[in-house]
Amino acid sequence: MRFLNLLLATAFCLSSCSRRTGDKDDTTMSTKDAHSFARPEEALVRHLDLNLKVDFSNQELSGTATLQIDNLSKGSQLHLDTRDLRIDSILLDDGSTAKYDLMPAVPYLGSELVVYIKPTTKKITIAYRTSPQAAALQWLKPEQTAGGKQPFLFTQSQAILARTWIPIQDSPGIRFTYTARVSCPAGLMALMSAENDTVLHPDGVYTFKMPQAIPAYLMALAVGDLRFHPYDERSGVFAEPVTLDKATYEFADLPKMITAAEELYGPYAWGRYDVLVLPPSFPFGGMENPRLTFATPTIIAGDRSLVALIAHELAHSWSGNLVTNATWNDFWLNEGFTVYFEARIMEKLYGKEYEDMATVLAEGELRKTVAALGEDNPDTRLYLNLEGRDPDDGMSDIAYEKGRFFLLNIERAVGRERWDAFLKQYFAEHAFQSIHTEQFLTYLEENLIQGDGKLRNTKIRDNKWVFGTGLPDSFPKVHSAELEKAQALAADFAAGKTIQNPQGWTTHHWVYFLRQLPAQLSPAQMEDLDRRFQFTGSGNSEILCQWLEICIRNQYTKADASLERFLTSVGRRKFLKPLYTALAATPSGKEKARAIYAKARPGYHSVSSGTIDELLR
Predict the structure, then answer these.
(1) Helices 507-516 and 541-553, axial angle in degrees (round to 10)
(2) How much is the pTM?
(3) Catalytic amino acids?
(4) 326-467 domain in CATH 1.25.40.80?
């Protein structure tokens, strides 16, 4: 097979490349990562060795980060990313104290750390400590955990928050291996995105090794009262003791998912694949930290109906972790591929009709996102321009779902067999590399389109999908007979007809049913729905969130207690944002939102609180 041998120094040069013309294009794409102060063409971090102490009382990590570097230019400076770190000292590998400059902070990016090195320097050691306000770190009191007895710490480094707990070159285009030694209070377990022990260490000291090179955003640490249940020799689940049995049952299909993924696109490259269930304040559904997916407890529904999220994070072991977006402008290369891969895993395990339902639901959310942003909004392009902005702005349904439908469009244009062969080759040839959008499109041209102008311009239409705003007219159609049943039931209810409780419905059915109801419902209709289907007391977070949004819109006050309980116990931004947005639509609702938020905010991660702060400002 043909390998794309790209030097990292080339990937980060300051020159730019322009897109070939087709449907329409005059886009120029810079290869410099606008969200990092790193200059990897000069000096590059190859390996990190961490030695950290976890201090819950002061909400601080302290210790040393030893960086092995490749001084490519034989120059005198190493440029690193930091944010809110206190630097105590820096030593060079010859034992001398290094001079350094910590530059003034820049919004979102933090402070550039310039370390003055020698042409012969191969290693530096930075003694430092984190701030209690470090954006990646969430320190939880015992009462904020499921068990209620021990404190908990977890990190969320994506997109550019690794620099708030490690002085590092924090760019997705820079990969390094790492080892670590973490000291935490006795009785707690420490885990990282690395090779993990599965047993409790009485002394609270844990060591870690990550032999495969990863970007900084995949650095992860969790410390808490945790236990482990294995599924087989390479997969299992970590959780708080009170959650472990439920989590073990919920994720029992994990070994089958790994097998299905390998059958599709090649061997799993990371050794073990384990899942860690975090406390409910975790701001995302999941985070694909290599070897150890972080997962929200909101996917534990008791019936395994929400495990597509696990398939998604597993798929990242290929798309994202193995082949990585080189900059955050290229984020769709991670998420669009992963959502597509997730769908293929779920289809393989649970059938085409099940996945068709999920795809139709996703299309509805994507179209809602495009309508909210505006068809001509540049943020509806797959390839984004996030310079001067927080890259978190690019983490919308556009990257995830428009990216997925673009790949589905290619699959239909060339046929599944040919597309699968291409993807398997793509993952193999770009393994442990970071890639730009331009490089992917060139690879697509050379290895799939192969000069077929008709295929490219009338079917695949990659320029329209990647650089065009809105949704192309080549958007693939997906049909679900099962969801038509939910739509029919919603129409009957809206028409005042007597409806029967359906049997055997999945989460997909119920969510679609709720979305098809009229925007405005009478008090009697709200009462009838709640009495008949008991939505207010649902233990399924997806169904409950959809219902609560309807309750807010229709001022159904009997759900107020459930709404407040949900918003004060769940920190997942996917649920928080639509509910607070619905509340903020009216003056009285906004007042209610602020009252609830005052109670809830201390339990939210900074990723979620930053979004809600802006929304309720």
Answers:
(1) 10
(2) 0.91
(3) 313, 400
(4) no
